[in-house]
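FAQ

Q: What does a record look like?
A: Structure on top, sequence underneath. For example:
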C-alpha cells in the first residue's frame, strides 16, 4: 500500500478541495465505508432550492485500488454538519476504520447559489462517520501532489459535475476577474482558514485576498438570473487564499 504523510490531516486544501467543494460531481465507482449505510435507487433530475447560507461538510476517503482516488461523502441535505460531532472527527482514525490510505475532512462550507439542478442515476449510498450521516457523491481521480500540504490558490481545475447553479435576480454575488477578462463567481464560502468568516464579510473580502497580478475582486447585485451551466461541459473551478471556491461563469447576467 502506498504511504502518504499529510502535514494537515484534519482539513482538505488545494486542488482536491476544488473538486470536492460543491459535491455535485457525477458519482462513479464504489469505496465501502465503515458504519451505517443504506441504498435506494432512482434516476431523476433533482432541483434543490433555497441553498444560500446552508452549511455542509465532507469526508473524503483516499484509496489506491485501481489508481489513486478519493470517494467523497457530503452531509447535505441530510444534516447541517453538527459542529460538536464534526470537530470530534479524527482523520487518521477514519482512514483506519475504512481501510483507506488517508481520510480528508473538508468543511464547514456554505452555499451561495439559490439552486442546483443535477441528474442523478443509480443507487444512493449513505454512510455514517462519527455519528454524522453523509451521502456518497463522487469518486475523484488524484495525483500524489493532490495530497501535499501545498495550496494552489487561484489555479483553475477541471471538474465533471453535470449540473447547473442558478443565482437569482436580486442576489448579491462575489466575483474574481482574471487577467484575460473571465469572471469567476463564488459558489461556496469556507471557514477552514478563518473559522469566523461570515457571509456579511464577503463584500469587503478584497482587503484580505492575496490576489495575483492582474486579478481583481468585485461584488454586484444581479439584474437577471445568472446560471453556471455545466451539464454537458466540464466546469472550471478555483479557490482563493481563504479557500472560498469559485466557478467560471458560463452565462452573463445583466451587469
Amino acid at each position: 500500500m502506498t504511504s502518504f504523510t499529510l502535514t494537515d490531516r484534519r482539513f482538505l486544501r488545494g486542488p482536491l478541495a476544488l473538486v470536492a467543494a460543491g459535491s455535485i460531481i457525477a458519482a462513479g465507482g464504489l469505496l465501502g465505508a465503515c458504519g451505517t449505510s443504506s441504498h435506494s435507487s432512482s434516476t431523476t433530475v433533482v432541483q434543490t432550492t433555497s441553498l444560500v447560507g446552508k452549511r455542509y461538510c465532507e469526508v473524503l476517503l483516499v484509496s489506491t485500488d485501481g489508481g489513486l482516488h478519493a470517494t467523497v461523502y457530503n452531509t447535505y441535505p441530510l444534516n447541517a454538519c453538527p459542529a460538536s460531532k464534526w470537530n470530534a472527527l479524527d482523520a487518521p482514525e477514519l482512514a483506519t476504520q475504512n481501510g483507506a490510505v488517508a481520510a480528508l475532512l473538508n468543511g464547514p462550507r456554505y452555499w451561495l447559489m439559490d439552486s442546483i439542478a443535477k441528474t442523478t442515476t443509480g443507487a444512493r449510498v449513505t454512510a455514517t462517520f462519527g455519528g454524522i450521516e453523509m451521502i456518497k457523491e463522487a469518486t475523484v481521480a488524484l495525483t500524489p501532489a493532490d495530497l501535499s500540504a501545498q495550496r494552489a490558490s487561484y489555479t483553475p481545475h477541471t471538474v465533471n459535475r453535470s449540473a447547473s447553479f442558478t443565482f437569482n435576480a436580486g442576489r448579491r454575488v462575489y466575483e474574481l476577474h482574471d487577467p484575460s477578462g473571465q469572471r469567476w463567481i463564488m459558489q461556496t464560502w469556507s471557514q477552514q482558514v478563518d473559522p469566523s468568516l461570515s457571509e456579511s464579510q464577503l463584500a469587503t473580502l478584497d482587503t484580505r485576498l492575496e490576489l495575483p497580478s492582474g486579478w481583481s475582486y468585485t461584488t454586484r447585485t444581479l439584474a437577471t438570473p445568472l446560471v453556471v451551466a455545466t451539464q454537458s461541459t466540464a466546469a472550471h473551478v478555483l479557490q482563493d487564499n481563504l479557500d472560498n471556491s469559485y466557478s467560471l461563469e458560463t452565462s452573463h447576467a445583466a451587469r
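Q: Is there anything notable about this one?
A: Helices lie at 15-20, 83-88, 91-97.
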